[in-house]
Amino acid sequence: MNTIITKGYKRGIHKCLYSVFEEAHINLPRQCFHSNYKNQNNRTTNNYGLPPSSFVTNSTKNNLKSSNVTKISDGNIRKSVFISQSYDVFTNLALEDWLYRNFDFSYHHVLLLWVNDPCVVIGRHQNPFMETNVSKLNSNDVTIARRNSGGGAVYHDRGNLNCTFFTPRERYDRKYNLNILTRALFREWAIKSEINKRDDVCINEKKLSGTAAKLGYPNAYHHCTLLANTNKLNLGNCLSKEEVNYISNSTASVRSPIKNLCEINRNVNTSQLISSVGYEYLRTFATELRDGGNQQIMKQRGFQLINPTEKWFPGIGNLRTEFKSWEWIYGKTPKFSVEKEIFLKDQDKEHKMILNVQVEKGLIHNVTITMPNREQLPVVSSLQCKCYNEENLSKIINALKLASTDNIMQAINSH
Amino acid sequence: MASMTRFARFGLQFTNVAAKTLRVVPNPQCQHWRAFNVSSLLLAERRYTEKHEWISVEGTTATVGISEYAQDALGDVVFAQLPEPGTALQQSDECGALESVKAASEVYSPLSGKVTEKNDEVEETPGLINSSCYDKGWLFKLTVTNPAEIEKLMSEEQYKEFLKAAEH
């Protein structure tokens, strides 16, 4: 399902951080660096080691009254940067959801950093067919996933960093999180970016980052993308939909021009971003946007590499299965209908019909055609109660074009 | 702050109504009745959860919505996902979500019970939650299975206090 990365940037960062802390003679609990570094020698396929002690959460602690959460003083809040070792979108979404459901963030704020293989991730109340061409994605080996937070569709690949900021609901602060990103970019590369009205990070009105959030009790998270060197061509291709008319009240994406950070400074890549965003997060006070410098960093729990496995996070496997299921990705689509104009040729003239396909819970529910005289006729199709997708739509269209011209003409004449 | 003043107004209205009802029954022999009147009035009034949902109970059916404060904090709601009729809920179960400017907020059931109806109009026009959160913007109705839960929810007054405490 997921592999542990023992080479490449992650290990590099990890090692260098470890030595930073050791040189500073800070006695950090070993668990903070619990990961491949510690387990390099004794790892087997079945034994990824045990989760850091900080993962053991006590759910009764979560009963803190909301008014008490805001009373926790800054000095009592620790921060961690978790770096997921998986590139699988479903595993990472499951990890995010696991932390949201089970972790106690009252005294411990967490920034989870994760990178995915090529995929399109849509918002919780979106229609995948209105955001992408699902059939085309499947044939191009791009995964499609539905996340739990609101907002619009995004494209991920290894050139894009995802940042999830976890806090208790009462501490949820989108502006704070976005400022961490802009400050990190400025500190590391002197890149000046802005936060616009829609809470996107932009340069010259081109988007570097998109935002979404999930608010619950006791926890909330805000996550965003950050484009380092994404394949823009793929991004554009993946977020183009089939040319038919969709009618639905599902959340619409706001399409915006985008920019990769590497176009501004070619030294930017995802591993550099992990390091700079992570450090910026750790050096900033938990409850206010104030830089605490190295002093503050030393008070935190530092960077931790995370293996999103069942051993570390009991129950994560089930969450992943759920994220990957048809019922979640397509079945959760708010009901919608598809309209397409079809021209049928009689001997001498052309008739314009409007095909209407109603889809509920991802399944084709009803198919009708509207005649030139505006009369609606039900169409009996073997595709009823089958999954809706672009291929099945074109099957219906072709079937109508081929077989039923005569029938339809008869139907017109008989009325 | 605007929402707070609105709350203050609600509070005033509430006490006025109670005072009036008391005045309508001037006969001292009706002491028992008077008490009953007040308590049934309280039940018809809204009660609140710490997660900013409200309920109002009529007979065995409770109507659920979100408070003015919550509506204001969310901003424009663009999508409402409500529980299907027939769903059995426990108190504090996640039972839906409201989406506003890029954030999906969970809706938790204030009471245990079975969903009898959801507000189709809100599903069609989620903006009703913003424009009329106590009236047209209700979310769903459920049958009350454990009336003791109602008593534990906050009254209008208590909720006002709760909001004040949370601001500090």
TrEMBL record, chain A:
GO molecular function, one term: lipoyltransferase activity
GO cellular component term of the entry, any: mitochondrion
Keyword Transferase: yes
Biological pathway: Protein modification; protein lipoylation via exogenous pathway; protein N(6)-(lipoyl)lysine from lipoate: step 2/2
GO biological process: protein lipoylation
Domain called BPL/LPL catalytic: residue spans: 105-289
Keywords of this entry: Transferase
Matching Pfam families: LplA-B_cat
InterPro entries per UniProt: aa-tRNA-synth_II/BPL/LPL (IPR045864), BPL_LPL_catalytic (IPR004143), LipoylTrfase_LipoateP_Ligase (IPR004562)
PANTHER family, per database record: LIPOATE-PROTEIN LIGASE, LIPOYLTRANSFERASE 1, MITOCHONDRIAL
Family named by the database record: Belongs to the LplA family.
Protein name: Lipoyltransferase 1, mitochondrial
Organism: Bactrocera dorsalis (Oriental fruit fly)
UniProtKB/TrEMBL annotation, chain B:
Gene3D superfamilies assigned: 2.40.50.100
Keywords from the named record: Lipoyl, Mitochondrion, Transit peptide
Compartment(s) where it occurs, according to its Swiss-Prot or TrEMBL record: Mitochondrion
SUPFAM superfamilies from the UniProt entry: Single hybrid motif (SSF51230)
N6-lipoyllysine: modified positions: 102
Xref: InterPro entries: 2-oxoA_DH_lipoyl-BS (IPR003016), Biotin_lipoyl (IPR000089), GCV_H (IPR002930), GCV_H/Fam206 (IPR033753), GCV_H_sub (IPR017453), Single_hybrid_motif (IPR011053)
Cofactor(s) required, per the database record: (R)-lipoate
Sequence ranges assigned to domain Lipoyl-binding in this UniProt record: 61-143
Alphabetized PROSITE patterns for the sequence: BIOTINYL_LIPOYL (PS50968), LIPOYL (PS00189)
Cofactor note text: Binds 1 lipoyl cofactor covalently.
Main localization, broad class: mitochondrion
Family classification: Belongs to the GcvH family.
Role: The H protein shuttles the methylamine group of glycine from the P protein to the T protein.
Quaternary organization: The glycine cleavage system is composed of four proteins: P, T, L and H.
Name the UniProt record assigns to this protein: Glycine cleavage system H protein
Source organism (scientific name): Bactrocera dorsalis (Oriental fruit fly)
Gene that this sequence comes from: LOC105227979
